[in-house]
Write a structure and sequence with these properties.
5-stranded antiparallel beta sheet, 2 domains, 5 helices
């Protein structure tokens, strides 16, 4: 299956991003901290994103195919809240209400969930994004499975709405140990279209002199790293294999430079 075009999707992308922030905001106050902020991430499933089990055994899932948030209570009861008809603030209220009705309270930071613009979700485009997300996630996790060393989980960070994981040269602390980051963003400042990315920390000598795989190129603004444009990847007949190998080639080139 080829990658969807993801054209004319800015409104849907924004709505899904804000919905993910609702799930992430509630998860953040419902789990214990993990190294490298992994507790803030959402896990990718076949139909969307999940908080995973919260401390009391409950779960929140953002179903991208049905454009709703699904709450499963500690007792296994299920309630659904549609994204349509809500803003980020009212969606937060609605999710917290179904949780409260099930006897499960949470107090997310409401100053981080303040957008009152109605969520505009095109279900067809949301489905396309889920197809893209899961396909690229599949390639990234296959690549990750071929690496040796300390790594963080492959998760979606609600703040930037990007898929990401870290590979460490040694140790396992993002703030102090040399590492590479690999991920997929639906778009960010300076990058209006989706892209796959990698960066090194700290940036090693000789980084920008490396030979990259055919689809990849260096960027130096607004951050320094390597990018594979989604649209170029989508033109490949076997995009998952091409992406997996491209990431392997990037890792093989950059990892020896880390000290």
């Amino acid at each position: 299956m080829s990658l969807p075009a993801l054209q004319n999707w800015d409104a849907t992308r924004k709505a899904l991003h804000q919905a993910a922030q609702v799930v992430g905001g509630i998860k953040k106050v419902s789990v214990q901290p993990l190294p490298n902020y992994a507790h803030l991430g959402l896990y990718i499933t076949k139909d969307g994103l999940t908080s995973g089990h919260l401390q009391d055994g409950a779960e929140l899932r953002l179903n991208l195919l049905d454009s709703n948030i699904v709450y499963t209570s500690p007792k296994g009861d299920i309630a659904k809240v549609a994204l349509q008809g809500h803003s980020q603030t009212s969606l937060t209220d609605a999710v917290l209400k179904v949780m409260s009705d099930a006897g499960h309270s949470a107090q997310p930071k409401r100053d981080e969930l303040v957008d009152k613009t109605p969520l505009a979700v095109d279900v067809g485009i949301a489905t396309e994004y889920q197809q893209s997300l899961y396909s690229i996630y599949t390639a990234i996790t296959r690549f990750r499975a071929r690496l040796i060393g300390n790594m963080s989980p492959v998760i979606v960070f609600p703040h930037g709405f990007d898929v990401s994981f870290l590979w460490f040269k040694r140790g396992s602390e993002e703030g102090t140990d040399p590492h590479l980051n690999f991920g997929f963003s639906p778009g960010s400042a300076g990058f209006p279209r989706p892209y796959i990315y990698s960066y090194a920390s700290p940036l090693p000598d000789g980084y920008f002199n490396l030979k990259l795989p055919a689809l990849a190129h260096f960027v130096q603004n607004p951050w320094k790293g390597i990018v594979i444009n989604y649209d170029k990847l989508a033109a490949e007949s076997d995009h998952e294999t091409v992406l997996e190998q491209s990431l392997m080639d990037i890792h093989a080139a950059v990892a020896p430079l880390l000290v």
